[in-house]
Specification:
The protein is α+β, with helices and mostly antiparallel strands and about 210 residues long. The protein has 7 helices and 5 strands, in the order E-E-E-E-E-H-H-H-H-H-H-H.
Length: about 210
């Protein structure tokens, strides 16, 4: 079968295989790629993180096997810019963990956000923060009061209502945006029991 998906996790398996997690419009899929870590592997260049496209899968004894990929986008700017890369990983981690917890999220919106992070001129962590705030609200976290400090709630509430994060974050430094991401992570942890591992790395990023 063919599915439209995005690689959001990749784990080495055995001597030369990989186990991929694909985000799709229908949920998360686990897929094995046989022999892909060999130097001459046909699918080597299209089985890394953030590859978006059409994935051809066959049913094996223990799950899906990847047989082909038609890549539409690889978000290459994220691989040459640490802030873009961290922002993309934060968004995919939020998406993966919320779906694993039973929440329903828009797959097209994730892809749209990754495009904005990859190509946009806005500080990418601001875009990732806004994505996370909107997802938090969709998942039932009260971003207006109670969960966050009053000043943080005011920013989060504004971010949830606008298209462009700069209109709400123009006066915030990069360090302050990283602090807001820490507050957001704390909200996901306290309200949904989800730990976002990327957020801690972001705060220590140069």
């Amino acid at each position: 079968m063919d599915v439209t998906g995005l690689i959001i996790r990749s784990v080495d398996y055995g001597e030369a295989d990989k186990i991929l997690t694909l985000a799709t419009g229908e949920g998360l899929l686990t897929v094995r790629v046989k022999g892909v870590r060999k130097a001459s592997a046909r699918l080597k260049s299209v089985t890394g993180l953030l590859v978006f496209g059409e994935f051809s899968l066959s049913q094996g004894k223990n799950g899906y096997i990847l047989s082909g990929v038609s890549a539409k986008e690889q978000f290459l700017n994220c691989w040459t810019d640490s802030a873009r890369y961290a922002s993309a990983l934060l968004c995919t981690e939020i998406y993966e963990k919320c779906l694993s917890a039973g929440e329903e999220l828009s797959f097209p919106n994730l892809i749209k956000t990754l495009g904005e992070i990859n190509y946009g001129e806005v500080y990418p962590l601001a875009t990732a923060l806004q994505y996370g705030v909107k997802v938090a609200s969709e998942c039932g976290i009260d971003i207006t009061e109670g969960v966050f400090p009053e000043d943080v709630s005011a920013i989060f509430s504004a971010l949830s209502k606008v298209a462009d994060p700069i209109s709400c974050l123009a006066d915030c430094s990069e360090r302050e945006i990283k602090n807001l991401i820490k507050h957001l992570e704390a909200g996901f942890r306290s309200e949904l029991g989800l730990k976002l591992t990327v957020s801690g790395k972001i705060f220590n990023m140069d």
